[in-house]
Please model this.
Amino acid sequence: MKNRNIYSKLGALLLLIGLLNSCTEVIDVNVPNGRARLVVDASIKWQKGTTGKAQTINLRKSTAFFDRSPDVPVTGASVTVTKENDGSIFVFADQNNGSYTATDFVPELNASYTLKILYNGNSYTATEALIAAPVINRVEQTIEGSDGDEEIVLQVFFDDPGAVKNYYLGEFTPSNPPLPSLAVISDKFSDGNENYIENDNENNVAGVTVGINVYGISQRYYDYLNILIQQSGSDEGGPFPIIPVQLKGNCTNVNDSNEEVLGYFRLGEFDTTSYRVN
Model:
């Protein structure tokens, strides 16, 4: 009887060791991959006080989920932007690295522009208006949090025009390292008054200089960015969180409306400044 107990305990111990060892094994996750998608990074940015003639549009192809290589640059496409009120067409020349550039672009506030991309026998298009930006009044820093969990927050103040709905994008680029973070707001509760957009990046530490751009953006782009910021800032759900909302840009395939095109075409004037954190 004692031998049986010993063998039973030994068997249980070996089984337990086997289970523990199995926990350290690498599990290959089979993630189904769809076809490569066109990624459109088409941001027409017009800094106050400049001509805005030089502009760049970037095109890429998406890669597989576990692919360590960056997105594949798209070359050989035809890229144009048309200003709808006078029919002016601006040709963006292929730089053979995924970038397409123009040096004669003419920005006009509140004018509508249409992006057209011809690639692989398909036509992709999107239309947006060029939105005005406010003038930055000042930048202030405050402290949020307590008990050793404090964080420096930057607030960028500007005047909001009254009697019209306005939407704003703040782009904050610290020098340590230069990785930009975004914030968006509307004037829903501050129409016609001084407004501010803030940044609570953990890289905001004493001695760091933060480059700040404030853009005027459309309501549709505001909604797009709002979802993007919320999803990219969420760390819940483990290594494979489920995206609660499918994020769709404004670019569509004229030949195949079911094709999912990633990215966004937008135009915006911006004011810029920098601030050294104290």
User: Anything to note?
Assistant: The CA atoms of residues 78 and 118 lie 5 Å apart. The first strand starts at residue 38 and ends at 47.
